[in-house]
Amino acid sequence: MMKESREEEEAEVLPQDLSAAEVLPQGTDKTTDFIDSALKGLNPRWRNWVVRGIFTWLMIFLFAFVVYCGPLALVLLVFVIQIKCFHEIITIGYIVYKSYDLPWFRTLSWYFLFTSNFFFFGESVIEYFAVLLHRNNFLRFFVTYHRFISFSMYVAGFVAFVCSLVKKHYLKQFTLFGWTHVTLLIIVTQSHLIVQNVFEGLIWLMVPVSMIICNDIMAYMFGFFFGKTPLIKLSPKKTWEGFIGGAFSTVIFGIMLSYLLLQWDYFVCPITFDTSSNRLSMECERHPVFKVAEYSLPETLDGLFTLLKIPYRKFHIYPFVLHSISMSLFASVIGPFGGFFASGFKRAFKIKDFGDIIPGHGGIMDRFDCQYLMATFIHVYYTSFIRLHNPQKILQNILMLKPEDQLHVFNLLQQSLVDNNFINITSSTL
Amino acid sequence: MMKESREEEEAEVLPQDLSAAEVLPQGTDKTTDFIDSALKGLNPRWRNWVVRGIFTWLMIFLFAFVVYCGPLALVLLVFVIQIKCFHEIITIGYIVYKSYDLPWFRTLSWYFLFTSNFFFFGESVIEYFAVLLHRNNFLRFFVTYHRFISFSMYVAGFVAFVCSLVKKHYLKQFTLFGWTHVTLLIIVTQSHLIVQNVFEGLIWLMVPVSMIICNDIMAYMFGFFFGKTPLIKLSPKKTWEGFIGGAFSTVIFGIMLSYLLLQWDYFVCPITFDTSSNRLSMECERHPVFKVAEYSLPETLDGLFTLLKIPYRKFHIYPFVLHSISMSLFASVIGPFGGFFASGFKRAFKIKDFGDIIPGHGGIMDRFDCQYLMATFIHVYYTSFIRLHNPQKILQNILMLKPEDQLHVFNLLQQSLVDNNFINITSSTL
């Protein structure tokens, strides 16, 4: 089915002659000689199954190993993936628009990647570790002027771009400038949200990432065995049966995985810098969503339960498990649109895959198209529904002020608390 | 000179046949019948001078009037300009890629404009007026879930885009998706920075906007009368003489304008919501940069002054005036690159102007290309070098917490102040 639709498209008339697929390395099933010889006997279709399966498990184990190595290793992994995704998309632009002779194009793209990472990553690190950074004079300079330094770096790139413009390439240069910036918008901003999710606690990375993987696999399985009704023209392989089966499995899987991870503080505690021990800490008083809570049945269901003579009226559950259902639903209903978008993009530019780095899968971007959208959802969900105004963090902001300003805040706050009768002052504190 | 280089370019071979200029309304000198008949006798070159001059002054008066109407009128003006700029750039995309039959393209572009404004404008309003918004239950809901609502709206647009994809238009649709997003990145994010500048005090809008206008006019004047040495190929009319003369004039003008505006609190006070009188307030204790300060000569100059027998060793000046010099230098050295970028863009797509709304000037975007870059610079400059951690603002953050958390912060802060010997507690405060 995939094959036919591909050939049909080839006949399409496009404004430009796109032959990117001939130049761009495309996904293959080629692996190491060892595996290749072991699989020689299989027919190509099953060969793809096996290769794809092996590398799926390999990636899952690699991910588990990085999680085991700790949050900083994870942040590093996010960076490596981000750089590779950027490389894949920029290479496509480079080939599609035949930009081999554009002056400075590659250098500028990488420079903009560096600049925007410097900015976003700096903002995250400053937000989470300001107190730590403030101890060192050299770093304090970077914290204070971080935005100015980032902006100056960006402006230098912008001026270099304007200076690199040459008459006969104007159109290509502006197209690729736009291409680079849309890529940065998609990859860098969203990677930075992933990093922030990691800082808030490993569970905010583990659960969503696993949900997308589970949904991908289960939708594929259900589609393979039961698929009949096509879902969307963009991805002819996708079926309604796969979509629904995937969603159902992801909800169940999400609940189970959440229960499992909730057993360790390691996964639920945000990463903070402990000033007393002078090191990163992953211990905490658990956030209420990670503590078992009692829920009562809604009144409407209550009547039904009485009728059926079911004695239970209350149940105990981790609130996070209930949240995991919203997340699973997003992962399986909206998540696939990230994939459809990527499919449409690949078709628009007549390529089959973003690259060929993972045998059986294609490029890194082929596997991460939905992950980025999911990470943004998790970030927004977390900041909207989960994050509490953290007294400790507000205190940190105050402690960065000059002593006289700290006192000023203290006095204002005391006044306000007294005015509202939250405290009584029996004697002066100063 | 302009004319020749334009024709030369026409011969350039481009991958697509771009004839946007034939379809897109281009800048003309056509005005009202009244002015047209009054200027009938002039030759075209001088006619352009007069029309351009009239409308320059008209815009300056309009701007002054809006400033007189107050900050909310200014914010409204920023919005109107933003929408018109977006419209101009999107129309160019629409024509260049001959996208007349793309399903939903215009609707989706405007929807994304609305969504991103909802997000950014909401973020600004929440940052500055959270206490006011928190009083009303309905608005409180919007404040709490603002990011989630914005994200859901964006995702709805994203899903609609994916669903609107049709095979024969894939390439155009993705190109225009990118086009829309780059436009949003340039126009919406920077407009939102302008709005934030206005909230910090009118002077942060007035001075930079006037500097760009002054630099434009003076560079044109110096270029017209003394210009000999071409500056950059992109804008053949620009000369080194105009560039240097413009920079020099802008520095002088910036100093004078700053001195003038510093006489009124109206220009230097941030816009705050006064909870006691229940209305917007533009009164304040002036920020130190707006108060006259004493500066001593650096020691190296000191020796020179002794030699020359100049008795002055100290001088009194508003620190803002010194800052205005940095801003003037940015406005006249880097600012023009915003214009070069816009010139390059217009040439890439073979158009003379972004539109024809202002007689003698072209489109709105033709006049605002440098203003946006300048506004971002001012925002970064303000946050890096001027903004003080405002005890009042930190207090607001604390007062939005639940009473028990307010008390918790209070106790933590008290403890820290006691530990550091900033206060002595003579008796318990609770």
UniProtKB/TrEMBL annotation, chains A, B:
GO cellular component, one term: endoplasmic reticulum membrane
UniProt xrefs under Pfam families: CTP_transf_1
Key words, A-Z: Lipid biosynthesis, Lipid metabolism, Membrane, Nucleotidyltransferase, Phospholipid biosynthesis, Phospholipid metabolism, Transferase, Transmembrane, Transmembrane helix
Pathway assigned to this chain's UniProt record: Phospholipid metabolism; CDP-diacylglycerol biosynthesis; CDP-diacylglycerol from sn-glycerol 3-phosphate: step 3/3; Lipid metabolism
Signal peptide residue numbers: none
EC top class named in words: transferase
Major subcellular location class: membrane
Catalytic activity, EC: 2.7.7.41
Gene Ontology annotations of biological process type: CDP-diacylglycerol biosynthetic process
Reaction it catalyzes: a 1,2-diacyl-sn-glycero-3-phosphate + CTP + H(+) = a CDP-1,2-diacyl-sn-glycerol + diphosphate
Any one Gene Ontology molecular-function term assigned to this protein's record: phosphatidate cytidylyltransferase activity
Record membrane topology: Multi-pass membrane protein
Membrane-spanning intervals of the chain: 49-68, 74-97, 109-133, 145-164, 176-195, 201-227, 239-262, 317-342
Location within or outside the cell: Membrane
Family: Belongs to the CDS family.
Protein name, as recorded: Phosphatidate cytidylyltransferase
